[in-house]
C-alpha cells in the first residue's frame, strides 16, 4: 500500500521547483505586461499623487502597490524560486524601453528588492502554500521594504517619526496588502479561470477548487 502521507523527496522537490521553458516564456510575457502597466501608471500617478498629498502628506504612498504587485502575482502563477525577481526585472526593462523619468539604477535595484521581499513568505514554506493570506503577507513584506527604501533613497528630508513619515509607511503597508496582496490574488484567480494556466500547477489548483465546489451537496 502506498503511503500518501510521506513528504516529498528532495528529488521531487527539486523537480517541482525547476524552471521549464514554459515558465520562462510566461514569466517574460507577464513581465512585459507589467512593464506596460508600470509605464502607464507613471502618468496617472503624477496627476493623482499631488491631490492625495494635498489631502494628507504621505498618503499618496497607498498607490505604490501598483508598481510592485507583479512580484506577488508572479509567485502565485509560476510558483518557482526567483519568479518575482525575474518578472520585476523584465517589467522594469520594458518600462525603461517605453520611457521612464527615474534613473536606471534606482529602478532595477528597487525591482530586485521588491521581488526578493515578495518571495520571502513563499520561500519560508518552500513554495508549497499559495492562498490569499500568503498573498497579503507577500504584499505586506514588499510594502514595508519599499517604504523603507523610499525613506532612505528618495525621501531623505522626511523624518522617520514625523507625521508625513508615519503616514507614508502606514499607507505603503496598506497599499501593499490591498494592491500587491489582495488584488494580485484575485487577478491570479481570474487569469486561471480563463484556462490559460491549465498547464501549470497554479491553474490546475484553481480548476480543482472549482470542481470541488461544484460537487459539494447543497444544505
From TrEMBL:
InterPro entries: ABC_thiamin-permease_prd. It comes from the Bacteria. The keyword Membrane applies. Keywords: Membrane, Transmembrane, Transmembrane helix. The chain crosses the membrane at residues 21-45, 51-78, 85-109, 129-152, 173-191. The keyword Membrane applies. Pfam families: ABC_cobalt. This is ABC transporter permease. It comes from Bifidobacterium pseudolongum subsp. globosum.
Amino acid at each position: 500500500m502506498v503511503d500518501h502521507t510521506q513528504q516529498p523527496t528532495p528529488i521531487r522537490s527539486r523537480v517541482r521547483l525547476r524552471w521549464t521553458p514554459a515558465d520562462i516564456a510566461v514569466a517574460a510575457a507577464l513581465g512585459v505586461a507589467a512593464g506596460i502597466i508600470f509605464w502607464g501608471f507613471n502618468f496617472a500617478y503624477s496627476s493623482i499623487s499631488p491631490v492625495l498629498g494635498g489631502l494628507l502628506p504621505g498618503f499618496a504612498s497607498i498607490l505604490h502597490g501598483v508598481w510592485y504587485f507583479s512580484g506577488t502575482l508572479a509567485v502565485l502563477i509560476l510558483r518557482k524560486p526567483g519568479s518575482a525577481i525575474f518578472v520585476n526585472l523584465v517589467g522594469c526593462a520594458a518600462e525603461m524601453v517605453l520611457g521612464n523619468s527615474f534613473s536606471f539604477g534606482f529602478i532595477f535595484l528597487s525591482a530586485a528588492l521588491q521581488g526578493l521581499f515578495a518571495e520571502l513568505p513563499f520561500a519560508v514554506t518552500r513554495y508549497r502554500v499559495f492562498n490569499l493570506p500568503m498573498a497579503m503577507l507577500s504584499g505586506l513584506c514588499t510594502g514595508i521594504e519599499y517604504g523603507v527604501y523610499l525613506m532612505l533613497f528618495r525621501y531623505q528630508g522626511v523624518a522617520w517619526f514625523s507625521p508625513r513619515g508615519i503616514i507614508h509607511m502606514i499607507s505603503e503597508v496598506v497599499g501593499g496588502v490591498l494592491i500587491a496582496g489582495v488584488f494580485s490574488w484575485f487577478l491570479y484567480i481570474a487569469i486561471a479561470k480563463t484556462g490559460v494556466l491549465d498547464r501549470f500547477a497554479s491553474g490546475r489548483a484553481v480548476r480543482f477548487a472549482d470542481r470541488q465546489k461544484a460537487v459539494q451537496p447543497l444544505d
